[in-house]
């Protein structure tokens, strides 16, 4: 987890600071140099704005980044507006041009992958959002592996991992606390996303202390519900909180459990995905289908109130 936290700090704080300081210092040799710097900074800002896990530092920080970007652009323009368009020192500028073009190609590709995440191929199914007691943040969601780590798995292609934000816009009190109660979502009530019949309910696995995981039982405690020609799974539920049984009929918005930290999970969150009925032998097999909530297809950094 130390590596993940290190990467998070580099990509969300260090790199934006470096890119913004290039603009802020206004050391471009020509307007062309300046435009390339702007393009690099714009592409990186788009990439990290949409693909960043802002719930770790603060959801609001992503908007501060945008504001700082515009201030830096305005400030740097004042410094370059009297410079010639083309470079004066040819060789120095060619090197700078090459570096900028390389970075532009990388981040243009990454931005394209994020754009793909907004699309879905099959007809989506509408569900009721399963959490109702606060502001919820989509940690993983969308149709691209750059914003949804489940996306490479056929059954979980459109799966969502949900956390809750506290008043500071972070998912936990601390960067990666070991106390489960420091995570805002822990013990929140989970409501049935549809009216249907419980296919299976498992309630026997313990809640783990981060970063412990149980790879033998990926879903941990879960409820699998058959709705109208689809099956929907809610997973990583809190031990002993599931109040529905196999074969029972449930109504949409009926409380069914609480959010926990059981199974293959690094911290408390709610996992949810839908699949075509009878398309998988185990709970994690099948053909995933896109879900909408109040007509919205949710992606990383979406908020639901
Ligand atoms: Zn998940």
What's this model, at a glance?
With 305 residues, this protein is of the alpha+beta class. It has helices at 2-25, 31-51, 61-80, 90-116, and strands at 125-127, 135-140, 160-165, 189-191, 196-202, 221-226, 230-237, 249-250, 255-258, 270-276, 288-289, 291-293, 303-304.
Termini Cα gap: 29 Å
Structural class: alpha+beta
Strand count = 13
Query: Which hetero compounds are present in the coordinates?
Result: zinc ion
- Output the CATH class name of the largest domain: Mainly Beta
Largest sheet geometry? 9 strands, antiparallel
Number of helices: 4
- The CATH homologous superfamily of the largest domain is named Glucose Permease (Domain IIA)
Strand content: 15-25%
Rg result: 23 Å
Number of spatially distinct domains: 2
**CATH fold-type name of the largest domain:** Glucose Permease (Domain IIA)
What do these coordinates show?
Residues 188-278 form the M23ase beta-sheet core domain. It comes from Gloeocapsopsis crepidinum LEGE 06123. It contains four helices and 13 strands. The strands form three sheets. Strands 2, 3, 5, 6, 7, 8, 10, 11 and 13 form a nine-stranded antiparallel beta sheet that branches. It is 30% helix and 19% strand. The chain has two domains: 2-116, no CATH class; 125-304, Glucose Permease (Domain IIA), CATH 2.70.70. Bound molecules: zinc ion. Zinc ion is lined by residues 150, 159, 161, 271.
Question: What are its keywords?
Answer:
single chain, 9-stranded antiparallel β-sheet, binds zinc ion, two-stranded parallel ribbon, about 20% strand, 2 domains, 4 helices, about 300 residues, Glucose Permease (Domain IIA), alpha+beta
